[in-house]
Write a structure and sequence with these properties.
disordered N terminus; Rossmann fold; 9 helices; alpha/beta; three-stranded antiparallel β-sheet
């Protein structure tokens, strides 16, 4: 899904590779992204960012952050949020570094840090990489969502971001459970067909799960799933009212979705944290 982001500029590095600088949240932050290759962030990242809400200081980890779209989306909307961008791809780390170095991003970059680490690391290796236990209030993630049998992405950089490996949800959600403080929240966006794997991975780690299906329009099948859970909660799952992105016969975003996409609103939990 593409975000309502406007391209601000195109740039060329010393090897002649074109990148773009794209504006999000009406210019409250910018992202340096690959042009014509790799993963380009859009609507998925902005919906994920909208799932974080707080009245005061909050520490947020963005797992598999890419160039930093979701994490910086949180920082742009919540002025007291501190974000940690976690990414393992050297290529995407380079884009995140370029993004944080943009002068236009100074207000959000001052509250962001970047860690090069594999989200699936365990125990001492994870801690040594800069992700200790019980550190964050909220963890967000947009794991690779294409199964290996799906049509392959046309380049290796995009394939790394998009292809789901067996057990990946369990590994990512395990890490989220480890680095969250007790009672902390985990939010993710995925394909609807992954719901059984996600519920299994949450197991006894997360309760109070809230599921929201995202549909392009009324009468059309869901294309994304939003999930939020509380570490250590024993509350039963809730299936929320579906979200429709566009009115019938249009590609324009409905007002509520446009607000989520552009950092004007949060997608808050229905149930209290317990």
């Amino acid at each position: 899904m593409n975000a309502n982001a406007s391209q601000a500029a195109a740039i060329e590095d010393d090897q002649g590779v074109n990148d773009t600088i794209d504006a999000f949240h009406f210019g409250r932050f910018y992202l340096v992204q690959p042009k014509g290759r790799g993963h380009r962030s859009g609507m998925d990242a902005m919906l994920l960012a909208a799932m974080v809400d707080a009245d005061g200081p909050i520490d947020v980890a963005d797992l598999g952050a890419g160039a930093g779209a979701a994490g910086l989306g949180v920082a742009a909307r919540l002025e007291a949020a501190r974000v940690t961008l976690v990414e393992k791809s050297p290529d995407m780390i380079a884009y995140a570094e370029k993004t944080l170095a943009l002068p236009e991003n100074a207000p959000v970059a001052s509250r962001a840090r970047l860690i090069e680490a594999d989200v699936t690391l365990k125990g001492r290796e994870r801690v040594a990489a800069g992700l200790p236990d019980d550190m964050f209030n909220h963890v967000i993630m947009n794991p690779p969502f294409n199964h290996a049998g799906d049509r392959r992405a046309p380049d290796g950089l995009k394939a790394q971001a998009h292809v789901l490996q067996d057990g990946l949800f369990d590994a990512w959600i395990r890490t989220a459970g480890a680095i969250l403080k007790p009672g902390g929240q985990m939010s993710l966006i995925a394909r609807p067909e992954s719901i059984a794997e996600i519920m299994s991975a949450c197991g006894k780690r997360f309760g109070g799960l809230e599921f929201t299906m995202i549909h392009p329009r009324q009468g059309e099948s869901a294309i994304r799933l939003l999930v939020n859970g509380i570490k250590g909660s024993r509350a039963r799952p809730v299936f929320r009212a579906p979200v429709f992105m566009h009115p019938e016969g249009s590609h324009k975003f409905l007002p509520d979705v446009d607000d989520l996409n552009n950092g004007r609103a949060a997608y808050r939990r229905l149930a209290p944290r317990r």
